[in-house]
């Protein structure tokens, strides 16, 4: 489906992205040397101008040396300062016309600064990984960095042969020449720039479960010494995939990969078709199983169905939080009602000043947003009943597959599954700050 565009610049990150055009496809050719942390790249970006003639435009790109820029084969005037590559084509691009931008860049990639610390390309002790949410993508490639501008990706990475390269998407080829290997991945599904995942390290690759005919291939990429713990911790991921396809609809991508790094990560990170975990998330005791469910659920909610801007982030995190509760309920753990009660008690003990539908940049990743977001979905489920609720969820994931959405899109969608207006429910949970009473189901809490 066509991607819905934001009405204006993202108020949380007004310097990111350019509304004057949209990208259709990125073709990235990268060469990375881990020891000196040296990256050189070429990007071919196929884009379409918006409603006005394009006399200039910008890409987001961190502090690299830019070697060459071309627009439709001609050299434009350009400047590169403060994370912005501003380009003035030699000949303006007509409104609605397709155009191609080529950029060559090189340097030592490092995370970009943010209120949450460094984001994006992270050099590890032996390798590298990319964790870009929300604004880290320009740390390693030039992009129109806003979540609603979704494009397909072709990514080629050359690195020393001792290293494996894992990216979201389908591995097309792996070619070794002398001491280097080139890995080529294709992600055909529309992808937000922050969701382009990449990991470079020394990994063993294993198949999780047997996908069977028409199933979803699931691979793990793990340091060899962590394999025994990984085997136990991720053993139930294929069952999660089965459950979520039942509840949310078909898995939206070709395959799913998980990477466990040698190093610890504060939290796992979702990317399109790929999730990254730290060694601290693998304990051999299934201690992080709820996080495995959370990251998998993001493939539907956040990745396939993306947000139009960062004000809508609860549509990513609230859905993934509720998926944790659904997995618990269906796998013999606590019920959704029990977990909703735990979340409600927690929120009741904390300041009640967060407005879910527009939390503000400082509170984008506040745990209260996750918990309250899960409770919104539980409240909707209690109001609709299970049959209508899960039809609603499958419809949401299916109708907006590959697109970008807002809170208003969601509330309108829910309204189609009930004869009783839910305006009061949404006013309290999404637009108010005071914690409403704990929702309880009409007829039991089991799925």
Automatic annotation (TrEMBL):
<dbReference type="InterPro" id="IPR027268">
    <property type="entry name" value="Peptidase_M4/M1_CTD_sf"/>
</dbReference>
<keyword id="KW-0479">Metal-binding</keyword>
<dbReference type="InterPro" id="IPR045357">
    <property type="entry name" value="Aminopeptidase_N-like_N"/>
</dbReference>
<dbReference type="Pfam" id="PF17900">
    <property type="entry name" value="Peptidase_M1_N"/>
</dbReference>
<feature type="domain" description="Peptidase M1 membrane alanine aminopeptidase">
    <location>
        <begin position="239"/>
        <end position="429"/>
    </location>
</feature>
<dbReference type="InterPro" id="IPR042097">
    <property type="entry name" value="Aminopeptidase_N-like_N_sf"/>
</dbReference>
<comment type="similarity">
    <text>Belongs to the peptidase M1 family.</text>
</comment>
<protein>
    <recommendedName>
        <fullName>Aminopeptidase N</fullName>
        <ecNumber>3.4.11.2</ecNumber>
    </recommendedName>
</protein>
<dbReference type="InterPro" id="IPR001930">
    <property type="entry name" value="Peptidase_M1"/>
</dbReference>
<keyword id="KW-0378">Hydrolase</keyword>
<dbReference type="InterPro" id="IPR014782">
    <property type="entry name" value="Peptidase_M1_dom"/>
</dbReference>
<keyword id="KW-0645">Protease</keyword>
<keyword id="KW-0862">Zinc</keyword>
<dbReference type="Pfam" id="PF01433">
    <property type="entry name" value="Peptidase_M1"/>
</dbReference>
<dbReference type="InterPro" id="IPR034015">
    <property type="entry name" value="M1_LTA4H"/>
</dbReference>
<keyword id="KW-0963">Cytoplasm</keyword>
<feature type="domain" description="Aminopeptidase N-like N-terminal">
    <location>
        <begin position="25"/>
        <end position="195"/>
    </location>
</feature>
<keyword id="KW-0482">Metalloprotease</keyword>
């Amino acid at each position: 489906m066509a991607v819905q565009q934001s009405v204006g610049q993202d108020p949380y990150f007004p310097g990111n992205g350019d509304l004057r055009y949209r990208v259709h496809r990125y073709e990235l050719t990268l060469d990375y040397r881990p020891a000196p942390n040296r990256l050189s790249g070429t990007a071919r970006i196929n884009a379409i101008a918006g409603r006005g003639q394009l006399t200039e435009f910008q890409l987001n790109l961190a502090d690299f040396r830019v070697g060459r820029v071309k627009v439709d084969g001609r050299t434009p005037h350009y400047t590169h300062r403060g994370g912005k590559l501003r380009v003035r084509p030699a000949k303006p691009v007509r409104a609605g016309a397709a155009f191609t931008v080529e950029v060559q860049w090189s340097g030592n990639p490092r995370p970009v600064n943010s209120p949450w610390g460094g984001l994006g390309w992270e050099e590890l002790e032996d390798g590298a990984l990319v964790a870009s949410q929300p604004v880290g993508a320009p740390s390693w490639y030039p992009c129109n960095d806003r979540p609603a501008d979704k494009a397909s990706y072709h990514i080629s990475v050359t690195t020393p042969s001792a290293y494996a390269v894992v990216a979201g998407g389908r591995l097309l080829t792996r070619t070794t020449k002398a001491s280097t290997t080139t890995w080529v991945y294709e992600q055909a599904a529309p992808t937000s720039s922050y969701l382009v995942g990449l990991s470079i390290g020394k990994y063993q690759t294993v198949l999780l479960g047997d996908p069977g005919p028409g199933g979803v291939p699931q691979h793990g990429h793990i340091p060899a010494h962590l394999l025994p713990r990984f085997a136990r911790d991720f053993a139930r991921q294929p069952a999660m995939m089965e459950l979520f396809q039942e509840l949310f609809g078909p898995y939206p991508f070709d395959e799913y990969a998980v990477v466990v790094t040698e190093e610890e990560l504060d939290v796992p990170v979702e990317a399109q078709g790929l999730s990254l975990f730290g060694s601290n998330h693998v304990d051999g005791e299934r201690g992080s199983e709820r996080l495995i469910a959370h990251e998998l659920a993001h493939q539907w909610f956040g990745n396939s169905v993306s947000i139009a801007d960062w004000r809508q982030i609860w549509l990513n995190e609230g859905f993934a939080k509720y998926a944790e509760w659904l997995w618990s309920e269906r796998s013999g753990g606590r019920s959704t009602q029990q977990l909703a009660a735990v979340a409600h008690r927690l929120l009741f003990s904390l300041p009640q000043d967060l407005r879910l539908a527009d939390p503000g940049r400082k509170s984008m990743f506040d745990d209260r947003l996750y918990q309250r977001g899960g409770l919104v979905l539980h409240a909707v489920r209690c109001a609709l009943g299970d049959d209508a609720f899960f039809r609603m969820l499958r419809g949401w994931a299916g109708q907006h597959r590959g697109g970008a959405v807002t809170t208003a899109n969601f509330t309108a969608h829910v309204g189609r599954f009930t004869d009783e207006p839910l305006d009061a429910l949404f006013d309290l949970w999404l637009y108010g700050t005071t914690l409403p009473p704990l929702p309880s189901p009409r007829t039991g809490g089991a799925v």
